[in-house]
Amino acid sequence: MSSGIAPVFKGLVSHPWAYPALEAVHIVGIAMLFGGLLVFELRALGLGRDLPAARLARLTLARSSPA
To answer: pTM for the complete prediction?
Structure first.
């Protein structure tokens, strides 16, 4: 009989640094997603009016798309 842990999670259980490393990568990903959105939304609200919106969108939002 198996131990009840899915094979995907056995690495997280067996290595004490695996879960903190996964969490760090997760937090960085969230920061990149919301950071890019925040910059673009601040531009849409009027800050940085001298920045072209199309160029700013290409630089910030392209990093948050999965493709």
So the answer is: 0.62
Tokens of 5: 């842990």
Query: What DSSP string runs through 14-41?
Result: H-TTHHHHHHHHHHHHHHHHHHHHHHHH
Q: Compute the distance between CA of residue 48 and CA of residue 63 in angstroms, rounded to an integer.
A: 20
24-40: pLDDT as tens digits: 999 999 998 888 888 87
Residue 36 tokens, joined: 């890019």
User: What tokens appear for 39 in the block?
Assistant: 């910059």
* Beta-carbon count within 10 A of 29 CB: 11
